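Much of our argument rests on the idea that a fold can be written as discrete symbols. In the encoding step, the backbone of a single protein was reduced to a row of integers, each denoting a local shape. We regard such an encoding as a compact summary of how the chain folds. The record that follows shows the chain in one-letter code together with its fold in token form:
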Amino acid sequence: MSSSTNVEETQVQELSEGDISQTLSFSSQNPNSRPCLYRCIATLRGNSYVSSLAVDGDTLYVASSDGHIRLWSLDMATEERDNVQSSSAAAVTNSAVKCVVATGDGLVSSHQDGKIRVWHAGRRNGSRRLALRAVLPTAADCLRTFLFARNYVEVRRHRRRTWVHHVDAVTALALSPADGAGARYMYSVSWDRSLKVWRLPDLRCVESVAAAHDDAINAVAASLDGHVYTGSADKTVKAWRRHPGQKKLALVGTMERHRSAVNALALGAGGRVLYSGACDKTVVVWERAGDGIMAATVTLRGHASAVLCLAAAGDVVCSGSADRTVRAWRRGAAPGGYTCVAVLDGHAGAVKSLVMVSKLGGDHGGSCDECCSCGGSSSHLVCSGSLDCDVKIWSLSVSCL
């Protein structure tokens, strides 16, 4: 899609030294900044740009544009090593990886070729490896849909495919928590503008929203209360939900605040807060209003270029940008009370992926959702992946008010 290509090109713009200096001075000049300790404790070197990160226990999965998925023990981060070389690949594919999510017993990856691959974690010759379990859509899904004309949709002029297929890069994945009946779903979005729902563990595609947005979809997030959020190059964030007794997702809200393509979404505060990052250099904070719909409460500014990724844990949200920095923001007690507490600077390229892990040892074991005036602190590991091919591991300790 030509619009998708334009979005990708916009996202990876580089900055001049002057732009970076202005960004770094923002935090130091903020009179409301709270005490925050941070440092880079390890750097994992790679050979191709990092497209996505995921954590499962003490394992960090690193996906890259060359189709490789590598894994690294986070315990190594505590040893404060510099310039750690990447280990051998745990899995190799023939298509660039766009997103990875951990499932507890393995990994799911989405790819440039429109496929979703499901992996099982195991060991081979004493080393941890990923074994390919399935490629979505499965052969069973393809078989049950290809015989009937009603299952075909037009994907391009004079080209039709069954509705279980993505026909462009699958850009993001999200896993829902298990519902009351024990069912669990995975959501996938694509540059083909569709949102698909996959039932776990049988990996069956149970629903497809063919034109969920007017342009490429770049991000998806699933909350504990059943809402699913999608962010698109059409500048909007949409909220979806399957109402009780219904089998299909319904659009329950369209959230408009950004002035350019939405690249990233993250949920915080137990799903009560949604963060969206966009090419307009901002992070918008959405909180649930009295009618149950998310409403924008504040816009976080400070990045000098497009916001490409987000990660949230407790009362802290981190944003990665094409300006080569990661900003850490702390949520205060008052509505809209956010403070930039740190600017993590060290990458030589755009920051494309983030993941946060709460650490034991802080006064709140990593988070302080309900109390922001306790005088304690929260501690996190922040992993940032960049177009410079490196993954940096940061130790971040944020004090409460």
Q: What stands out?
A: The chain has three helices and 31 strands.
